[in-house]
UniProtKB/TrEMBL annotation, chain A:
Pfam families: Tubulin. Keywords: Cell projection, Cilium biogenesis/degradation, Cytoplasm, Cytoskeleton, GTP-binding, Microtubule, Nucleotide-binding, Nucleus. It is found in: Cell projection, Cilium; Cytoplasm, Cytoskeleton, Microtubule organizing center, Centrosome, Centriole; Nucleus. GO terms for cellular component: centriole; cilium; microtubule; nucleus. Acts as a positive regulator of hedgehog signaling and regulates ciliary function. One of its GO terms (biological process) is cell projection organization. It comes from Pagothenia borchgrevinki (Bald rockcod). The lineage of its organism: Eukaryota, Metazoa, Chordata, Craniata, Vertebrata. It comes from the Eukaryota. GO terms for molecular function: GTP binding. This is Tubulin delta chain. Residues 40-240 form the Tubulin/FtsZ GTPase domain. CDD domains: delta_zeta_tubulin-like.
UniProtKB/TrEMBL annotation, chain B:
Its main location: cytoplasm. SUPFAM superfamilies: Tubulin C-terminal domain-like (SSF55307), Tubulin nucleotide-binding domain-like (SSF52490). This is Tubulin epsilon chain. Found in a complex with TEDC1, TEDC2, TUBE1 and TUBD1. Pfam families: Tubulin, Tubulin_C. GO terms for molecular function: GTP binding. Residues 60-276 form the Tubulin/FtsZ GTPase domain. The keyword Cytoplasm applies. It is found in: Cytoplasm, Cytoskeleton, Microtubule organizing center, Centrosome. PANTHER family: TUBULIN. Residues 278-413 form the Tubulin/FtsZ 2-layer sandwich domain. Belongs to the tubulin family.
């Protein structure tokens, strides 16, 4: 089954290009024919000359980024984007969600739907749509939200996942909190699952784990592509009976998003080491999984600086509904293991009922995917996709920041100009407060 | 890709504009080695067929034939424009882009705004429309003028309101040169305050530049290059007062100062012209930096002012560049943003600079910079990969900061001194359409603007509790 990727805005187009590239490099590198075929079928099709063409649509309201992504892909010599699979305009949305959502989105609805439809029809079987974008700008967030809404209308039965890049907390677009709040509130009604990477976290991984001195967006994007790729690269699931699973998006959604109030997914991977030291590092499954488990429950995104003191609350504490200090409660987790001796890996630590909310049994809440093929040059690697309280803090600070700004009505005139009223803002605020409160009460 | 049109009005406007075109050509020639008319060039230049007189324009992708500036030149004197037309840049403009008269505005805002404003209204609109028709996606008008004279100040602000009327959707970014206290135009305080009201009401963004700051920066750079100490040799072309490598050889008195302003304009538009890992388009400026419509004065600072010929310790210099952008000496108005209140701040970086350099410097500088309570993380960043000629990297900071009010208050003081004595007032009141109420209304517009900055300043240092969050019924 195939996934159609929709890349939106500067971030979406830069991250998406890197993701597709990483997936293909990894698949072709391993010389495992079966995996390679599955990856190709999932994310690419072949043109008449046998060239690999991404099942992707590129959308931006300005031309520079798309041109760059297209030529970068072509330069790799391994794959390319479809010649007519992109749509751009001359002038970006100016970091204004309202401009993207109310003006650009509706103006180009038909063209975009047509581009996606062409890719969808090229798939023998569609696993679903993956829309990639940032929440801070105007095009990814505003047009991205609008396009997601259209796709939801056109493909009511298909899985739609959004991959979102959350901005650095210390500001890079001044109205980023407004744009994020409007995006998240709307996507919550539309999307099946919302996968999040925070630029702050990824940046930290680049500097502390990968020892990169001058971190560029290309470095950040490689880490995102690695983590996301290790989820999307074909794997074996419990009921795929030894063949690569067919529907990665569907399986992710059904494993993790069983309740419409809970759709925010975070990702963490282990190990992540500089390329140069990879040859000298060796890892054992027990140690990797022990670290990953502690990263989960203490809500740390890196194997460095893990707080080993955090423990799951005892049953008695839970019934008194006390949240134990720093403990991150999960609703559901998917663990993806790749590499050597993967079948010997013991994952019992993730099946502890104490990790989960009381209303799902560990059997329902936890799934493992495996593949004996090493991923992205790592002999062994583990990635955890988690629907948990992990994103509560950044979400709360986004909403809080936006609310503070809203209280003084700063920048609101820029939004009303394009037809987003104060009431629209209030609706978005209240629906996200609802999400925050639901995650807070998870236990 | 989008296009912008530069509208240069008055002596100052045209002299600064001329420096901009010269340096813009230099920059593109430096980047564009193939001689093809590319997207980047198309944002400020048309490529026309020189053999045909009506100048049929070429589309992007072909060879450069003949570049024409996307500009409208307006002056009520002939001197400056004629000089341009006799100089090496003459080919860049044709008569349809020019509007001149012979007698000038006599440093009288009313003559520029009222007399010429109504006499030339149709012609101006006509030329603006022509320029706009040549663009397939017109994003921005850049108005360049001075505040102190008559034409730039009076007619320039008239042009501004015509732009708003005719092209309400197109962004208006105004570069305004403010007079120094010793300005030789006696009536400059009148002209400036009458113009201020128009700027406050009709511009999307104003980049105020004070002549005194330009003088100080020029002095500083000249001093550096004459000091002759070893290790302090400034690289040719790199000083932002230098026109080296441009078409125009000999320097005129204002050239060094005007090159600084030209560099400001080059940097502010760089991300719209060239690619980068984090683009900052022109329409993002107002969106990010203007929280309330009237408070749209953005204090610019440029760093580095020059680079030294020996290129040791580049990374320390990189951090120095960020520190400098917040120092008093690098602001293009005489003000101290660090000791006032930031409403928002943009860092537009060019060259070999990565996101980690940005993050590190923001973290480092943040504690020393006061931001308004509701915009504690009020940073906007852009990364453009093409550096200015002669540099490996550069930074333009745009600060929406209450420190602008000092400039405005000084101006108001000078205005009041004249106004109390009714000095020169009759020259204005003679002009048809000009009334005393124009003075009082302009004054009160400025005063209320200053008051708005005062009120924001008063919140500084006060611990503001976050607004109580929305409660939801469960
Ligand atoms: N991780 C990552 N983040 C990026 C990248 N490019 C941009 N961003 C982030 O995206 C946000 C800005 O949004 P953009 O994607 O640039 O904006 P856009 O969707 O193109 O929208 P407009 O330009 O406003 O029309 C900021 O949070 C950036 O940090 C990238 O390549 N990688
Ligand atoms: N920076 C700079 N200031 C100028 C220049 N020419 C004139 N000025 C200033 O502009 C003011 C006079 O306005 P001017 O442009 O000569 O009058 P206009 O032609 O009637 O608009 C005074 O404050 C001058 O110091 C110039 O080329 N550069
Ligand atoms: Mg963009
Ligand atoms: Mg003059």
């Amino acid at each position: 089954m195939s996934v159609v990727t929709v890349q939106l805005g500067q971030c979406g187009n830069q991250v998406g290009q890197q993701l597709l590239h990483s997936l293909l490099c990894d698949a072709q590198n391993g010389q495992r024919k079966e995996l390679c075929t599955a990856t190709r079928e999932r994310f690419f099709h072949q043109d008449t000359h046998g060239e690999l063409v991404a099942r992707a649509v590129l959308i931006d309201m300005e031309p520079k980024v798309i041109n760059q992504s297209i030529s970068r892909a072509a330069r790799s010599g391994m794959w390319r984007y479809g010649e007519t699979s992109h749509f751009s305009q001359k002038q970006g949305s100016g970091n204004n969600w309202a401009n993207g959502f109310c003006v650009h989105g509706p103006a180009h609805r038909e063209v975009v739907e047509e581009l996606v439809r062409r890719e969808v029809e090229r798939c023998d079987r569609l696993s679903g749509l993956l829309a990639m974008m940032s929440v801070a700008g105007g095009t990814g967030s505003g047009v991205g939200t609008y396009v997601t809404q259209c796709l939801r209308d056109v493909y009511p039965k298909s899985f739609i996942l959004n991959h979102l890049t959350w901005p650095y907390g210390t500001g890079e677009v001044i109205v980023q909190n407004y744009n994020s709040v409007l995006t998240l509130a709307h996507l919550y009604q539309l999307s099946d699952a919302i996968l999040v990477h925070e630029n702050d976290t990824v940046h930290q991984i680049c500097s502390q784990l990968l020892n990169i001195k001058h971190i560029s967006f290309a470095d950040v994007n490689s880490v995102i592509a690695h983590q996301l790729g290790s989820v999307l690269q074909p794997a074996l699931t419990a009921d795929s009976q030894g063949a690569y699973s067919r529907n990665p998006l569907g399986e992710l959604v059904s494993a993790l998003c069983c309740h419409p109030e809970f759709k925010l997914l975070s990702i963490s991977s282990i190990p992540q080491v500089p390329l140069a030291s990879m040859a000298y590092s060796s890892f054992s499954w027990p140690s990797l999984l022990k670290h990953l488990r502690q990263m989960l429950i203490s809500n740390t995104k890196m194997e460095e600086g893990i707080d080993w003191q955090v423990r799951p609350p005892a049953a008695a504490e839970r019934s008194r509904s006390l949240t134990a200090g720093g403990f991150n409660t999960s609703l559901a987790n998917v663990l993806i293991l790749r590499g050597k001796d993967v079948y010997s890996a013991e994952t019992g630590g993730f099946e502890d009922p104490a990790l989960y909310s009381s209303w799902l049994s560990p059997q329902e809440a936890f799934s493992v995917w495996k593949s004996p093929v090493p991923f992205n040059k790592y002999e062994k690697s583990a990635t955890l996709v988690s629907n948990s309280q992990a994103l509560l803090r950044p979400l709360d600070s986004m909403v809080g920041g936006a609310w503070n700004m809203f209280a003084s009505r700063a920048y609101i005139h820029q939004y009303t100009k394009f037809g987003i009223s104060e009431e629209d803002f209030l609706d978005s605020f209240s629906s996200l407060e609802q999400v925050i409160s639901s995650y807070k009460q998870l236990r | 890709m989008t296009q912008s049109v530069v509208v240069q009005v008055g002596q100052c406007g045209n002299q600064v504009g001329c420096r901009f075109w010269d340096l813009a050509l230099r920059e593109h020639a430096h980047v564009n080695k193939k001689g093809l008319y590319d997207e980047a060039l198309s944002s400020f230049f048309r490529n026309v067929d020189s053999r045909k007189c009506d100048g049929e324009a070429h589309v992007v992708g072909g060879r450069i034939q003949h570049l024409k500036a996307r500009a409208v030149l307006v002056d009520m004197e002939e001197g400056v424009v004629n000089e341009i037309l006799q100089g090496p840049l003459r080919e860049m403009f044709d008569s349809t882009q020019l509007l001149t008269d012979v007698s000038g505005s006599g440093n009288n805002w009313a003559v520029g705004h009222m007399t010429y404003g109504s006499a030339y209204r149709e012609q101006i609109v006509d030329k603006l429309r022509k320029a706009a028709e040549h663009c397939d996606c017109l994003q921005c008008f850049f108005l360049i003028h001075s505040m102190g004279g008559g034409t730039g100040s009076g007619l320039g602000t008239k042009v501004l309101s015509l732009l708003e009327e005719e092209f309400p959707e197109v962004c208006r970014i105004v570069t305004s040169i403010y007079p120094s206290a010793e300005d030789d135009v006696v009536t400059s305080p009148y002209n400036s305050i009458l113009a201020m009201r128009e700027l406050t009401e009709h511009a999307d963004c104003v980049l105020p530049v004070e002549n005194q700051s330009l003088v100080d920066i020029v002095k500083k750079i000249k001093h550096m290059s004459h000091s002759g100490k070893p290790g302090t040799v400034i690289r040719r072309e790199s000083a932002i007062i230098s026109g080296q490598g441009g078409l125009i050889g000999a320097e005129k008195p204002f050239d060094a100062m005007n090159n600084i302003v030209a560099n400001l304009l080059l940097n502010i538009t760089s991300s719209a012209r060239f690619e980068g890992s984090l683009n900052m388009d022109l329409n993002e400026i107002a969106m990010n930096l203007v929280p309330f419509p009237r408070l749209h004065y953005l204090v610019p600072s440029l760093t580095p002012l020059y680079t030294l010929a020996d290129v040791s310790v580049p990374s320390r210099r990189l951090d120095q560049m960020f520190s400098d952008a917040f120092s008093k000496e690098h602001q293009l108005i005489r003000a101290d943003p660090k000791h006032s209140l930031y409403l928002a701040c943009a860092l537009m970086v060019r060259g070999n600079v990565q996101v980690s350099d940005l993050r590190r410097n923001i973290e480092r500088l943040k504690p020393s910079l006061p931001f308004v309570s509701w915009n504690q993380e009020g940073w906007k960043t852009g990364l453009c990969s093409v550096p200015p000629v002669g540099h490996s990297h550069s930074l333009l900071a745009l600060a929406n900061n209450t420190c602008v009010k000092t400039t405005f208050m000084e101006l108001r003081e000078r205005f009041t001194k004249l106004y109390r004595k009714k000095a020169h007032l009759h020259h204005y009141l003679h002009v048809e359409g000009m009334e005393q109420s124009h003075f009082s209304e302009a004054l009160s517009s400025l005063s209320s603007l200053i008051e708005e900055y005062h009120q924001l300043d008063a919140t500084k240092g006060r611990l503001m509790p976050g607004a109580p969050r929305l409660r939801i019924a469960r």
